[in-house]
Description:
It contains eight helices and twelve strands. By secondary structure, it is an alpha/beta fold. It has two domains: 9-85 and 178-250, 3-Layer(aba) Sandwich (Rossmann fold), CATH 3.40.50.1000; 90-174, Threonyl-tRNA Synthetase, Chain A, domain 2 (2-Layer Sandwich), CATH 3.30.980.20. The chain has an eight-stranded mixed sheet with strand order 5-4-3-2-1-10-11-12. The chain has a four-stranded antiparallel sheet with strand order 6-7-9-8, with helices on one face. Magnesium ion (MG) binds at residues 15, 17-19, 167, 197-198.
Amino acid sequence: xxxxxxxxxxxxxxxxxxxxxxxxxxxxxxxxxxxxxxxxxxxxxxxxxxxxxxxxxxxxxxxxxxxxxxxxxxxxxxxxxxxxxxxxxxxxxxxxxxxxxxxxxxxxxxxxxxxxxxxxxxxxxxxxxxxxxxxxxxxxxxxxxxxxxxxxxxxxxxxxxxxxxxxxxxxxxxxxxxxxxxxxxxxxxxxxxxxxxxxxxxxxxxxxxxxxxxxxxxxxxxxxxxxxxxxxxxxxxxxxxxxxxxxxxxxxxxxxxx
Length: 258
Ligand SMILES: [Mg+2]
């Protein structure tokens, strides 16, 4: 891991659910003062989520956050009004899934109505409708065994797609992950700090200069001895980890140019 120097230029890349947002309530109040600190320090924030573009645009308005964002687990990056694609169109994914249906037990977003999605996720109707506006991925409620999940993931790989475990779902998408779009954000003078809580964040955390794992209610399960780890969950853990980091790098005494 690269040592961060006082005054180091940063980009902060964060997962949403279970990381910046509470896993159950989707609130982020505890992180708001830290987001303000980032704004004051002119440190860019990038959202990197399994959520859809529609979901993020609604949240962005609500939170008054104007940030570049990556949606559907690295499928598309929205930067300076441009859309950069890394995933594959959802109809292709659904077609492949249909051919596996007889041998594996799963239910996907495309199989159910908005009320069921509300039940699965705890989202209100509006947010659930936005989460159904998917273009590059299909979240599955996995009803089969773990062994079957491994065999399923292998078959998915063989047809040129990939699977990722999120907080609630097994996501099926194109051959991308949350790390791939980061290459568009990298610059020689900036270091990337990434925060995430689940296996779908692992590639992003590995790619970052500093990876911060936010604890889940089941503890912290992501492998990697070089990550920093919060003890608190969601936005509380986010603030717990980001405040000391910003103190260390940008307290008045440690900033070389004031
Ligand atoms: Mg998460």
